[in-house]
Specification:
With 752 residues, the protein is α+β, with helices and mostly antiparallel strands. The protein is 26% helix and 24% strand. The longest helix has 42 residues.
């Protein structure tokens, strides 16, 4: 569905630590354990006598001949045993006003789980209302009582709407729900409708949905038919539990107690009455069936459970020790051979006398090492959880086919795997260092060469979203964007693994004097066009849109054919989610920073356009974006360029090779494009898509100069001012005269 950030559930090969993966296979004999793309683990079931009471589901075949899983005609897309969650697709309630008939039409939706073991998740869901003059109520049953709450959203006009992912009350409102809610329905307040806003918004919407799958956009208001589709659905999370008793009470009746597997444990439900079963630490599988919890063979997974000596699997645990004749720490691979030599009799007596003490000391040391090792494993598991690893694995689980069809690959790497690939981060493997971290060259076990980014810090407030956002970035598949291959989440600051690009950066190519003879204007124009295409893809085609936030020549890599590949679009560069992020994000590099961003602290797609304009100047002038040793007015490349164009001195600041090629018309149009990118206010700048289209036109003009060009019209348009704006640009006063609807003789519709 287009109006949400998407229902992002993906599937890869699961790591052995994920217990839910084996659960479906443990259901009673002869019972189906899968419906379409969804695993159906016991206590759930499809066939008769295959489920616990209350957990029976329907597997139906759709008109498109696909199997789908349902409960009460609501589709289920995922079931999690360890978390006690089930994801469903709920419908949207709507109310629309017709100015033609002066009447209001609506459809409201309700869902009743009063006699089922499901409650709407109070942690993951929020009641969401969208509209410009809307008051909607949510009513339901909470335990043995009733519940009612509401949410109001308003907006005076289309200009007041703001594209941001959180609901602020302007066009969008969200409110939490209580625990133990088993039934809900939606009601619109009739005195609030769209009669005063119908000219730009005539529909209102209300729905209970999974909050972190929703990002508000102004288009939900202005494109009012977006959600009125009768088939629109949104993700909704329900918690489920066994019975209505606590663990203590349930364990008294062995005939009905659900946690029947050995090595299982009981946990009271956090949302209403009932309990859940989980496998004990060191075991995975299905705790609801006999022998369902199986021992994890730690020795078969050397990345999660490292052992560089002799590994011995134990029930619920494992041991690791050095081979005979050696001593040390087998966990870290520091086993050392024992030195043998003949000893005097007195020494042997002394050793024999102290052997008991030494044995006790060694035993104590071994116990200490084991405890430290367990502590280390728990720390890694804590980091993995804090960075959204479990959520990531659960969402990975459901769409293997999508990744296979798109030719995508995303892997969660173990810490030891990346240490081995970089030879424990050998300084000789460093590809580059920056303020955000260090990039190393890594060679994986399959001989594949990768680039491993080891950041210095992570935003604490965004930890839980990190894994989920990485999956969004992993879907990016563009020839001019460096591919994100995977991540490592079991460290304090998550590490990212990218494809390796062999020919260095554009910054090195531009500012390395040795490459001057081979760096033609055509090559510069091609690299600029490829980079613009990549940024336009991030802004317009990625879902959700991605703002790079640090566009610069050192973040544009070149492969063996000198094809441009934009890099370093980290998870923190997704479209900001709230006002706090606007205030705390520090994006960009000195010399490339958008001056409007410095004033508003609001990062937008037009911030990338400004930074790209500086890169375009670098390509044309071969000058660095900033010179700290120069005078204040000559310090900024952007300022020097604006002043030079104002004083008709453009040719003086161009690179000799560009100037000597003598393509005056092409140079003039490239300069005009750079000037539009460097406008002080974002609204006056073109979009990256328009920049890419213009560079494509200039490339074709460069390759085929004999194609007739309407130069008279171009000159006429460039000489006719439309709206004069007195602005200040890096301390230099300039007057701009640019008609954004006619640029370089092209009819282009502008919009943010």
């Amino acid at each position: 569905m287009g109006v949400l950030l998407g229902y992002r559930l993906f599937q890869l090969l699961m790591l052995p630590l994920v217990g839910a993966a084996a659960s479906a296979a443990a259901a009673p004999k002869g019972c189906r354990t899968r419906c379409g793309e969804v695993d159906v683990p016991y206590p759930f079931g499809i066939d008769p006598n295959c489920s616990r009471e209350g957990f029976s589901l329907n597997c139906s075949r759709t008109a498109e001949d696909h199997e789908k899983l349902f409960v009460l005609n609501v589709e289920i897309v995922n079931i999690s045993l360890p978390l006690g969650h089930a994801r469903m697709l709920g419908e949207i309630s709507w109310q629309c006003y017709s100015a033609r008939t002066n009447s209001t039409d609506n459809r409201t939706w309700s869902l009743d789980f009063a006699d089922k073991p499901y409650r709407f998740s109070d942690d993951l869901n929020k009641f969401t209302v969208i509209g410009c003059d809307t008051l909607a109520y949510i009513r339901g049953l909470k335990g043995n009582g009733s519940y009612r709450s509401g949410c109001v959203s308003s907006c005076q006009n289309e200009v007041s709407l703001d594209n941001r992912s959180s609901c602020s009350g302007i066009g969008c409102c969200q409110t939490s729900i209580p625990k133990d809610l088993t039934y809900y329905e939606v009601e619109f307040y009739s005195n609030f409708d769209s009669t005063s806003t119908w000219n730009f918004s005539y529909c209102s919407y209300a729905v209970l949905l999974e909050a972190n799958q929703f990002e508000f956009q102004a288009s939900y208001i202005t494109m009012t038919n977006f959600w009125s589709n009768r088939n629109s659905t949104v993700p909704l999370v329900v918690d489920w539990a066994i019975g209505n008793e606590t663990c203590e009470v349930a364990q008294r009746d062995i005939t009905s107690y659900a946690c029947i597997s050995e090595h299982s444990e009981c946990l009271n439900s956090s949302n209403g009455p009932g309990y859940l079963c989980n496998c004990s630490s060191g075991y995975h599988g299905n705790p609801y069936v006999a022998h369902g919890c199986q021992d994890i063979d730690e020795c078969s997974d050397k990345y999660r459970y490292p052992c560089h000596g002799i590994c011995q699997n134990l029930p619920g645990n494992y041991s690791c020790f050095c081979p005979r004749g050696t001593y040390g720490d087998a966990f870290t691979g520091t086993c050392t051979h024992t030195q043998h030599q003949k000893l005097p009799s007195s020494t042997k007596v002394a050793i024999g006398t102290g052997s008991g003490l030494i044995f006790l000391l060694i035993s104590g040391m071994c116990i200490y090492v084991i405890l430290q090792r367990r502590k280390f494993i728990k720390i890694k598991e804590r980091y993995f959880r804090e960075h959204g690893g479990w959520i990531l694995l659960e969402e990975i689980k459901a769409k293997e086919r999508y990744f296979r069809e798109q030719g995508l690959a995303f892997k969660i790497f173990a810490k030891e795997e990346l240490e081995k690939a970089t030879e424990k981060y050998d300084p000789n493997r460093v590809l580059g260092r920056g303020g955000q971290g260090t990039v190393y060259k890594g060679v994986m076990e399959d001989s594949r060469v990768v680039a491993i980014k080891k950041p210095k810090i992570i935003d604490e407030s965004q930890k839980n979203e990190f894994g989920k956002e990485l999956l969004i970035l992993s879907q990016i598949n563009h020839k001019n964007i460096v591919k994100l291959l995977g991540c490592c989440l079991e460290v304090e600051v998550p590490m990212l693994v990218y494809e390796f690009v062999s020919n260095g950066t554009l910054f090195q190519l531009i500012h390395d004097n040795n490459s001057a003879s081979t760096f033609s204007l055509a090559t510069r124009l091609r690299i600029a066009h490829e980079s613009a295409e990549a940024l336009a893809y991030l802004h317009s085609s990625a879902s959700p849109p991605i703002i790079h936030g640090d566009v610069k020549s050192s973040n544009i890599l070149l492969d063996e054919n000198y094809t441009a590949k934009v890099s370093d679009f980290g998870a923190s560069k997704l479209v900001p989610k709230d006002e706090d992020q606007f205030a705390t994000l520090v994006q960009g590099t000195c010399g490339y920073l958008d001056p409007e961003y410095l004033q508003t602290c609001q990062l937008t797609e037009k911030s990338d356009v400004y930074s790209f304009g500086v890169v375009l100047l670098e390509l044309m002038t071969r000058k660095k974006p900033i010179y700290f040793e120069a005078s204040e007015e000559d310090r900024s490349l952007a300022s020097c360029f604006i002043l030079a164009t104002k004083e008709n001195r453009l040719m003086e600041i161009l690179d000799d090779q560009v100037r000597n090629e003598g393509d005056t018309e092409l140079i003039r149009e490239m300069s005009e494009l750079a000037k539009q990118c460097l406008k002080f206010t974002g609204e006056e700048r073109p979009t990256m898509k328009q920049v890419a289209e213009e560079l494509d036109r200039l490339r074709k003009f460069k390759q085929h100069p004999w194609v007739p060009q309407n130069l008279e019209e171009i000159e006429s348009l460039l000489s006719q001012p439309s709206v004069d704006h007195e602005t200040y640009y890096h301390g230099i006063e300039t007057t701009t005269s640019y008609n954004p609807e006619k640029r370089l003789g092209l009819d282009i519709e502008y919009g943010r």
